[in-house]
Amino acid sequence: MSSAKDADPSLGYLTRKDTEVKLPRPTRVKNKTPAPIQITAEQILREARERQEAEIRPPKQKITDSTELADYRLRKRKEFEDLIRRVRWNISVWIKYAQWEESQKDFNRARSVWERALEVDYRNHTLWLKYAEVEMKNKFINHARNVWDRAVTLLPRVDQLWYKYIHMEEMLGNVAGARQIFERWMSWMPDQQGWLSYIKFELRYNEIERARGIFERFVQCHPKVSAWIRYAKFEMKNGEVARARNVYERAVEKLADDEEAEQLFVAFAEFEERCKETQRARCIYKFALDHIPKGRAEDLYRKFVSFEKQYGDKEGIEDAIVGKRRFQYEDEVRKNPLNYDSWFDYIRLEESVGSKERIREVYERAIANVPPAEEKRYWQRYIYLWINYALYEELDAEDMERTRDVYRECMNLIPHKKFSFAKIWLLAAQFEIRQLNLTGARQILGNAIGKAPKDKAYIDFEISEGEYDRTRHLYERLLDRTKHLKVWISYAEFEASAMEEVVEGADSLEEQKRKCIQNARRVFEKAINYFRTSAPELKEERAMLLEEWLNMESSFGYLGDVGLVQPKLPKKLKKRRPITSEDGLAGMEEFTDYVFPEETQAPNLKILEAAYRWKKQKISTED
Fold it and tell me: What does the angle CA 14 – CA 19 – CA 24 come to, to the nearest 5 degrees?
């Protein structure tokens, strides 16, 4: 049986070959070089416009008699009215309607359309402008006045309406009427430009006193730096130097703390400079630099430096340069108040040129920036601010009470429960010693033992004073608070070194040395006993303590006895233990373990005890 694909085409069947669609082959561009004549987009658009057919417009209709005119008007009004009914809120339709009525010279109908449009949206100031312009264009002045008066009454905050109204009256020569409109406008307290327009209006008619009165009202309505500067320049332009200076002085009195006060001071100083009053200008600059925050006085510093270079002497120039550097430091500490290096630079600058009050002010501002975290690494640089402050008060200012207060405030600020600084305790104590106040020094160092036991400044002080009994008492107090390995070693070294300070007396020198060695051994014995009974887990510390003891016995020469220590030394064993890392991987690590003599004897004692119990049990069984 034959299939469809083998069918004969003459019989009406299609083969697969007949149904295949042959796609055209893509043409290949053989020549890719640019054409000799380039066609631009502009040329293509121009040719397209030239080939467009002309726009079909309706033929122009010529009106030959009044009947045709009436029909035309009726038809157009009907079109406008129908359009308004559909899009009542479309103001442009109303405007076109009214302007068409105007073109037909039917002004009453035009006014009717304008009034209907205002009933729809009287807040649209464009309607009022177009309405009034139509009345003005056709010289209906009173109608225009009526429109402007209604407009400014309903929309008093639209400046353009006031400007147009005033301009119309001024063009008509009605200066009094324009002034009256300005007064109505000023009662609404417009922006600065409105007041300045009023002033310019009066100046056009050379009404200087009126303009001055308006300026007075202007600076009361807008007490801004720019308003006062304009007022002063107005007086200066009219040659009233005393009045201009008075304006600047009043402005400084009112706006010395304003954010834009820098501009006011610069303008005031430049005014005095133009008047050849250089000393007045210098005083203004210095007053401004003392009162304006440093972050807002960049232009002021630049102007002051330029002024001093032009008019000042060497001292004045240096002062101006210092002021500029002061501004730079102020900018740095404002951006990063925790950058203590910037504070140090700022303080050095003030200490070289500044007064005591300014130096103290910078110090107080610097120490007010307490580190945000109670970690010693953040405080290490900060503490030196306090130290420098205290040294300045003691050495430069020579104010001992303030020095004492600085040390006291610093020690109260430090979080001693987490960390402390031995240097600050020691400096405070040394200051009291310089004041011959040994009781105060001992009190400070006693507080150091209580609040910061790891800092042993008090012990060093008593050793330097030769107070050995007091030193032993301090070591015992310290050991009540901490049993740290270093404290034991330091205590033993102190007892051993005390023999270097003895003098020949009733006892021989050798006997006194033996006594010092016995005291050191007693400390080591006490320490070993503590680590063996109270802290058996601290094997490494115990081993280190024995090593120190052994080294000390060796250093004693013929008076030493290493045989006291060697039986106590532990054996070192290398062991391995399993560990687990943070990512969960298991492994083994090698560590050093210490086995002390009593630990090796313990298994033997257990065997003897077991043998004794076995023997006792055997005897009782035989009986």
Answer: 150
Q: pTM for the whole thing?
A: 0.50
Q: Are 148 and 161 in contact (CB under 8 A)?
A: yes
All residues at 6 or more sequence positions from 138 whose CB lies less than 8 Å from its CB, including other chains: 102, 107
390 phi/psi in degrees, rounded to 5:
-65, -40
> What pLDDT is attached to residue 312?
59
The answer to whether domain 140-218 has CATH 1.25.40.10 is: yes
CA distance 214 to 208: 10
> Tens digits of per-residue pLDDT, 225-252?
999 999 999 999 999 999 999 999 999 9
Q: What is the pLDDT of residue 505?
A: 47
Helix (H, G, I), strand (E, B) or coil at 592: strand
Decide: 492 and 552 in contact? Cβ < 8 Å. yes
Q: Which long-range contacts (CB under 8 A, 24 or more apart) does 537-545 make?
A: 539/570, 539/593, 539/594, 539/596, 540/592, 540/594, 541/485, 542/570, 542/594, 542/596, 543/569, 543/570, 543/594, 544/485, 545/485, 545/488, 545/489
pLDDT at 603: 54
Q: How far apart are CA 263 and CA 100, in angstroms?
A: 55
Structure tokens at 169: 């009256």
**pLDDT tens sequence across 386-395:** 888 899 888 8
pLDDT of residue 11: 39
> Which ranges of the chain have pLDDT less than 70?
1-27, 29-30, 53-56, 58, 294-296, 312-324, 327, 354, 449-455, 457-462, 464-465, 499-507, 581-585, 599-615, 621-623
| pLDDT value of position 318 | 60
Phi, psi for residue 578 in degrees, rounded to 5: -75, 145
CA–CA gap between residue 499 and residue 337 (Å, rounded): 53
What is the DSSP code (8-state) at residue 260? Answer: T
The 10 Å Cβ neighbour count of residue 143 is: 17
β partners of residue 575: 591
Q: Do 6 and 17 form a contact (C-beta atoms < 8 A)?
A: no
Each residue of 300-336: b (16+ CB within 10 Å) or e?
A: bbebbbebbeeebeeebeebbbebeebbbbbebbeee
What pLDDT is recorded for position 2?
39
For tokens 């040294």, what's the residue?
Answer: 391
300, 288 contact by CB (below 8 A) = yes
- Measure the CA–CA gap between 338 and 350, rounded to whole angstroms: 19
Whole-number Å distance between alpha carbons of 494 and 491: 5
According to the model, what pLDDT value does residue 206 have?
A: 93
